[in-house]
Structures are given as C-alpha cells and as structure tokens.
C-alpha cells in the first residue's frame, strides 16, 4: 500500500512485521500524530500535565485515519490542533493550524492562574514556588 504524502511517496515494501502498514511512519503527519498521542498517554512525557494530566484523551485510531480525515500537513508552519480545547483528540475535533490560529484558540488564563513565560504552562499562586 502506498500513500502520496505531500510531494513524496511513502511506503515500505516487503515489511511484514506491521510496523509500516500505513506507509506514513517517517512523515510530518506521523510525527504530529505520535507527539499528540504521547502528550495524552505517556505520564513520562514532559507535556503530559497539560494534556493527559487534564484528562484529554487521544481517540484517533491511526495516522491513516487522521490523514484521510484532515489531509496532509499543508506546510511546515502548521501543526495538529484541537478545535475545541475542552474536548479530546478525535477525528471530528482536529485540524492543521498555524501558530497564530492556535493562539486564537488557546485556553484563557483564569484570574487565579498565570502562564509561565519560559514553559508556557499555567500555574496558580498556590502552586508557584
């Protein structure tokens, strides 16, 4: 099976162990899929607290399903974005968005929370050390 990804073809003929069934392993789309999944599912991920730690689940079944639903990454300036930030990563809630589009779609800091300018993470006065 071969997919056209951007301007290149992605396939791994002869692979029988299932690692490359979708042919998208070394693509920007796979990287975005994998990174979002890690933020939600891996407590050892440095960004887990902001996604999985808040209860955000990764419900996209495969990178192939992602590409079939929203297409390939339009440019290097785009990344995977949840349209509704209070909802999970699911096929009907993701899109490719630029940093500007994502800033307009970010969760607002509450009056009791501030954003750390170095890490980008929210903290309250009680948790600030």
Task: Based on the model shown, name its key terms.
disordered C terminus, alpha+beta, 3 helices, two-stranded antiparallel sheet, disordered N terminus, 129 residues, single chain, 22% helix, two-stranded antiparallel ribbon, 6 strands
Order of helices and strands: EEHHEEHEE
Helix/strand-derived category reads alpha+beta
What is the strand content? Answer: 15-25%
Rounded mean pLDDT is 78
User: What's the tally of helices?
Assistant: 3
Major sheet strand order: 1-2
Protein model, in words:
Helix content is 22%, strand content 17%. The termini are far apart. The protein has a two-stranded antiparallel sheet. The protein has a two-stranded antiparallel ribbon with strand order 3-4. The chain has a two-stranded antiparallel ribbon with strand order 5-6. It is built from 3 helices and 6 strands, in the order E-E-H-H-E-E-H-E-E. A hairpin with a 2-residue loop joins strand 1 (3-5) and strand 2 (8-10). It is an alpha+beta fold. It has one domain. Mean pLDDT is 78; it is low at 1-20 and 123-129.
């Amino acid at each position: 099976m071969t997919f056209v990804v951007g301007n290149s073809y992605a396939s791994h003929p002869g692979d029988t162990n299932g690692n490359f069934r979708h042919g998208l392993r070394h693509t920007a789309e796979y990287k975005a899929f994998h990174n979002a999944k890690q933020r939600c599912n891996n407590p050892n991920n440095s960004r887990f607290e902001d996604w999985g730690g808040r209860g955000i689940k990764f419900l996209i079944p495969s990178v192939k399903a992602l590409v079939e639903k929203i297409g390939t990454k339009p440019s290097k300036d785009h990344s995977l974005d949840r349209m509704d930030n209070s909802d999970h990563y699911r096929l009907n809630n993701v899109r490719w968005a630029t940093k500007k589009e994502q800033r307009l779609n970010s969760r607002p800091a509450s009056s009791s929370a501030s954003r750390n300018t170095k890490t980008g993470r929210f903290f309250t006065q009680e948790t600030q050390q």
